[in-house]
Amino acid sequence: MSRGVLIGIAGGSASGKTLVAAKIYEALGPDGVAILKQDSYYRDLADLTPEERARVNFDHPDAFDTPLLLEQVSRLLGGEPIEEPIYDFTRHARSERTRRVLPVSVVILEGILVLAERELRALMDIKVFVDTDSDVRLLRRLRRDIHERGRTVESVLSQYETYVRPMHLEFIEPSKRFADVIIPEGGHNRVGVDLLATKVQAVRNERYAEAEAGVAPGRAPTGAPSTGRASNRADAGNRAVESDRSRNPMRGDLPRGGSLEVICGPMFSGKTEELIRRLRRSQIARQRVVILKPSIDDRYDVDHLVSHSQIKIPSLQARSARDVLEHGREAEVVGIDEVQFFDEGIVAALETLANEGRRVIVAGLDMDYRARPFEPMPQLLARAEYITKTLAICVTCGAPAGRTQRVTHRGERILVGSSEHYEARCRRCFDPPREEGAE
Ligand code: ADP
Ligand code: ZN
Fold first, then answer.
1. Residue from 262, 267, 269 whose mutation best tests the ligand 1 pocket (most atoms within 8 A of CB)
2. Which residue's CA is the closest to the ligand 1 atom numbered 16?
3. What is the mean pLDDT of residues 4-23?
4. Closest approach atom of ligand 1 to CA 274
5. Which pairs with CB-CB distance under 8 Å and at least 24 residues apart come from 28-32?
6. Which atom of ligand 1 is nearest to the CA of 309?
7. Fewest beta carbons less than 10 Å away: which of 62, 108, 232, 298?
């Protein structure tokens, strides 16, 4: 696994750094990118009295639990999930809950003082300072605090004079000299954001290439000489613990809220292509992906999903729903093609995998060649969070086609094959087979 890319974005209060972070996130596409906020790492002040709390300087570096931030950023970049604290600003305390952040290939760390900490800077691949004039920032802050937080003009200004401005001049502004890039005017600077996104992408690709070639990643603390891919596994001892846990079905490091996605439609509608597209994105996001298909379907290639347009991705064969459950538990993302060919137990197996926190994506025929619902698809569709219905093109008239026409006359319902036996038809051109009584 390649080491993640860290991009640090600092800037004064209301400078627009959050927007810059969001725009970079958007430009990179959400897969494999996480935004961390320095604000989440404010120290827990639950033990202070209200008067003591009122005197705390939230713009000073000491207000943050930087050791925890450092530890979590390093772990995330090294490929481990973290529990990001959730800060409750009304109580100035850490909430009981945390936010699980899965390992990603790009971490965007955003906060007023992220460039002011030497150790954090040392982890960063790209250091950005969002530079916005102080009058603009004060105006924004006045507006925001009055409208959104119900504060008075007087209280905002006095806070600005007592804390925000002096800390800006003492810590934030001087940290600008460490930036690789200074972005004027924040997130509305399209060119700046695009350049940054391109640079992040380039560094990320370099990392992938290094990992592929077995080169130890630039700043990773590996003492041993690198020997191929094994080098990444050779670092810390807790790695082994981590991967042992990954085999346990009740693993603690799965995302909360698994889900079931169903892609359905007739043959030739692009179900396999769509499934492969989603699975590739998960792989790019460096999630653990398992790809399965029923072993009954051995057209083309035994260990790949292959679409009618010859797009393919390596896969494993599963003989039963039990197989699916077993293989699925090795992964965070489980993809299955031709899911309609599994036994009835597949519904329970997929529900279990999703309930345990996995993203389960399945593709399958929703109707058989008689246009009757193809079990277990109705069961899966009812339980899915996300449903995509794909349509093909009717070979007779060119309209969108939702039916699969069988063009040979064999009795059995499951006839695995492709264009020689089946074609896509629309509702009007579909001609239901008449040999009903013959079976
Ligand atoms: P599915 O998994 O739904 O059977 P695939 O993803 O394997 O579909 O294949 C979709 C591809 O099949 C299309 O991108 C196109 O290249 C090709 N194709 C062949 N016949 C048709 C058709 N009648 N309508 C749409 N696409 C077709
Ligand atoms: Zn038609």
1. 269
2. 309
3. 92
4. 6
5. 28/106, 28/197, 28/200, 28/201, 29/281, 31/281, 31/282, 31/284, 31/285, 32/104, 32/105, 32/106, 32/284, 32/285, 32/286
6. 16
7. 62
- Is residue 439 pLDDT above 80, yes or no? no
List ligand 1's pocket residues with C-beta within 6 A: 265, 267-273, 307-309, 392-393, 395, 424
pLDDT-based confidence at 263, cuts 50/70/90? very high
Mean pLDDT score across all residues of the chain: 83
Give, for ligand 1, the residue of 263, 299, 308 to mutate: max count of ligand atoms closer than 8 Å to Cβ.
308
Residues with CB in 5 Å of ion ligand 2 = 394, 396-397, 399, 426, 429
403/304: higher pLDDT: 403
Domains of the chain: 5-199 (3.40.50.300), 259-438 (3.40.50.300)
Distances (CA, A) of 363 to 114, 282, 307, 337, 418: 44, 16, 12, 5, 16
What's residue 410's pLDDT? Answer: 54
Comparing CA positions, the residue from 426, 347, 406, 360 lying closest to residue 387 is: 360
Centre of ligand 1 to C-alpha 27, Å, is 30
pLDDT at 219: 40
pTM of the model: 0.49
Share of the chain above pLDDT 70, in %: 83
Nearest listed ligand to the Cα of residue 430: 2
Rounded to whole angstroms, what are the CA distances from 287 to 188, 284, 414? Answer: 32, 8, 34
pLDDT (0 to 100) of residue 256: 59
